[in-house]
Write a structure and sequence with these properties.
Strand content: 5-15%
Oligomer: single chain
CATH class: Alpha Beta
Order of helices and strands: EHEHEHEHHEHHH
Structural class: alpha/beta
CATH superfamily: HUPs
Number of domains: 1
CATH topology: Rossmann fold
Number of strands: 5
Number of helices: 8
Length: 233
């Protein structure tokens, strides 16, 4: 039986790493796609390389896009990353945070779509989440559905009926704790990952940004220790 190829968007964070593990567990042959998009630090790409190597993906491509050209986000502009927000407020105050990067998932999925067409792949995996998340508009189920509809109108393979793309979002309705538990059941080493928006030069997480707080909440609720925290203590 031929194992079907799939493009997996891989940031090196907790969610995308779990998504990669799920794709492989489902029997797909993963091709990992990461982006050097002008983000605040390159440490997440180091994490993505570690994860891709650990999983033995067929290929890991890092695409260069400079979203600092536009700015508009604390991750791509001279804007401070918010720290020490109340964990209960994150994603629940109807305010899109300044860590949102305009159109990022649309851009990333478009590159994924292009590579999938070249590979003859009908599947893209992305680790978006609509429960324990920061409130980004491009993490919602309705957005993913709309992109999938567009994608199947946008490619030669789709128009010719050779390739109907499916965008898989296996984490979209899971809490962070459930994501961690799922990953651990698949043997994910979360010590390879990095979630922090503003880590120290040596990779130590700040512990105060929204991403760090969501990660800490997830591990606490899952009842397991975060290996990154243990490594930095």
């Amino acid at each position: 039986m031929t194992i079907r190829p799939a493009v997996v968007l891989l940031s090196g964070g907790l969610d995308s790493t779990t998504c990669l593990a799920i794709a492989r567990d489902m029997g797909y042959r993963p091709y990992a796609l990461s982006f050097r998009y002008g983000q605040r630090h390159s440490l997440e790409l180091d994490a993505a390389r570690r994860v891709a190597a650990a999983f033995g993906v067929d290929e890991h491509v890092i695409v260069d896009i400079d979203l600092r050209t536009f700015g508009g986000s604390a991750l791509t502009d001279e804007i401070d990353v918010p720290k020490d927000r109340d964990g209960a407020e994150i994603g629940n105050d109807n305010e899109i945070p300044v860590t949102y990067v305009p159109a990022r998932n649309t851009i990333f999925l478009s590159f994924g779509l292009a590579w999938a067409e070249v590979l003859g792949a009908q599947d893209i995996f992305i680790g978006v989440n609509a429960l324990d998340y920061s409130g980004y508009p491009d993490c919602r189920p309705e957005y993913i559905h709309a992109f999938e509809v567009m994608a199947n109108l946008a490619t030669a393979a789709g128009v010719q009926g050779r390739q109907m793309l499916t965008i898989h979002t296996p984490l979209i309705q899971l809490t962070k704790a459930q994501i961690i538990q799922r990953g651990l059941s698949l043997g994910v080493d979360y010590g390879l990952t990095l979630s922090c928006y503003d880590p120290a030069p040596d990779g130590t997480p700040c512990g105060a940004c929204e991403s760090c707080k969501l990660r800490a909440k997830g591990f606490a609720e899952a009842g397991v220790a975060d290996p990154i925290v243990l490594a930095s203590e």
